[in-house]
Amino acid sequence: MRNSRYLWIALAALALSACSSHADKVAANTQTNAMVVAQTAFDSHQYAKAETLFHQLLAQAVATDQPLPEQAMLMLARSQFRQDKKQAARNTLQQLLERRGPTAPEAAYYLGKFSLDDGKAEQAQAAYRQGLALDGLTGPDEARLLNGLGVSLLNQNSYAQGREAFARALTLAPDEATYRANLALGWLMDGHVATARTVFAPLLHYQHLPPRVEMNYALLLLAEGQMQQARLILSRYLSPTQVDHDIRQLAERLAQIRQRTAGQSS
After folding, report:
1. Long-range contacts, stretch 76-82, CB < 8 angstroms, 24+ apart
2. Which segments carry the TPR repeats (predicted)?
3. Which residue has the higher pLDDT, 11 or 212?
């Protein structure tokens, strides 16, 4: 009789375990489906809807005592930033970064990028450095953070430090055109036109270059006095009016670089 009682207890425990396992699987599937729907809204540029769905997903995780899905937090921040809820986005990303979980490197990247987009170079630099201090960074993550750090340093006129960050990024990802183009820009902004050309040269053999890389090349061409070629590149992406506007801006920027370089050498 006693053995029969123990058997029933064991069977009951097994049933409870099976129920718990099934409930966990159902919750996980529900969360995955909700994530797909929210991501689809984001990809369709329905940022307000995406924000609501990501909020609901996170609230559901809390209500069911599930771990917070960090990818949902990351996408929530991106949805918020797209709606000019910039401080809310930065707060969400900072929380993710401080959790030091799997999405922390990406959180650091977006925190830095959003700060740069707002013209906050010092805040961007701090975010990228915080990301670089994370343990277990992959090569691509480290390279992307170093590139962001380099951009923030160039924005603060720290050209040598910026070039160092780009060079380290390029060592980790030697085929990444953006990192090489930014390294060339770091030399150009410091008045070293010939060195910028040498650094950029390997990219001229690429079959396809990102628009931003080609625009960096247009700036180099302007510095070399090749106005028509620069105008031709810019006209692929901009209207004639925008090309004229950007040519004037780039010419003014180059004049400032030359003036600063001349002042340093005198």
Report:
1. 76/51, 77/107, 77/110, 78/42, 78/110, 79/42, 79/47, 79/48, 79/50, 79/51, 79/54, 80/51, 81/110, 81/114, 82/45, 82/47
2. 143-176
3. 212
